[in-house]
Write a structure and sequence with these properties.
Length: 394
Amino acid sequence: MKDQFPIFERKINGKELVYLDNAATTQKPNQVIEAMNDYYRLSNANVHRAVHTLAGEATEGYEECRKLLKKRFNAGRAIITSGTTEAINLVAHSWGHSNLNAGDVVVLTEMEHHSDIVPWQMLAERKSIELRYVPVSDGKLDMNAFEVALEGAKLVCVVHTSNVLGIRNPIEKIISFSKNRGAKILLDAAQAVPHELIDFKETGADFMAFSAHKMCGPTGIGALLVSEEAFKEMQPFMGGGDMIDTVTLSGSTFQADEHKFEAGTPRIAEGVGWSAALEWISKIDLLNHHQRLLSIARDVKVSLEERGMTVYSPLGPGDAAVISFTHPSIHPEDFARLLDAQGVAVRTGHHCAQPLMERLGVNGTIRASFYLYNDHNDSEKFLFAIDRVMEAML
Ligand SMILES: Cc1ncc(COP(=O)(O)O)c(C=O)c1O
């Protein structure tokens, strides 16, 4: 598959690229790069605003992305955002602003990415809502504590698949418990949609946020899927062009559909690129790749443990192939720099999940995350590079 991704033609520090930083962002296939290139070369115009041919093509190209999102994820409403972060902030500013009041409870977890913590802390400051965090114990969400935290909750925000540990949380259980208690549910699916095909309506969730760039699409674009019931309860928070129906000096009315949340010129080229990525990925057997990558990651985990590393990722059946680990004496950054010198790209640090790091009792980890184009050859080169680092440092 690597031949479909031009980045693998280049050498990094004189070595073939072993790209294992996929949880941060994935590489882009030719189709995506060419679609964006063609858009700028042949169809560039603003959307929804003019009757000329180019404007029509640009509008069609951009709206195609929404159509594909609704189809792929079986969603009635797809608001296009700049990514997962903006999608979650949108829920906080629109739904949260008008539906949460002083004393209301929002349940989060210690496993959340900062983008699913900070917007709620900011809202809590403004509206005096209560935030309850479900603890992580033995590397998993404590489901007994979750049930307790649910008491009186209005909203539950939970990461579907952890960007640090690859853990797929028991989402079905979490949603059914939350619904039974009358709470709305937001899924941070940034790390889930690259690995599994999610039927949004079937999940029963009210909001689902994710980013294109983690599933071979461009950066700068993502989506918020919204249930019909929650959509009715959302008010726009960003005003401007495109989102209005009428404007007079005494007031404005808004569009009825998703456009009311997309003020201003949208990410048109990115929409075109994401459409190409969605079409590309629709031909991929994700389940098959998921099992293949998980098996590679499990072998790597064993090899890392044999070399004295602590591996934090359980790599259970539904988990993503993400391995977070530390070495007892080599600092993660030194490790990653020496891996980079050998062409191996991994991420180090807190992975925008400082509360989880605190729970794991570390300042940071080294994270190797695998995606569709990775294979045994990559894992062998990764382990070979690890051995060279250990030779150099110990
Ligand atoms: C679980 C999770 N949530 C949210 C985000 C934020 O995504 P973005 O930076 O694309 O908005 C990420 C990105 O790493 C993530 O892994």
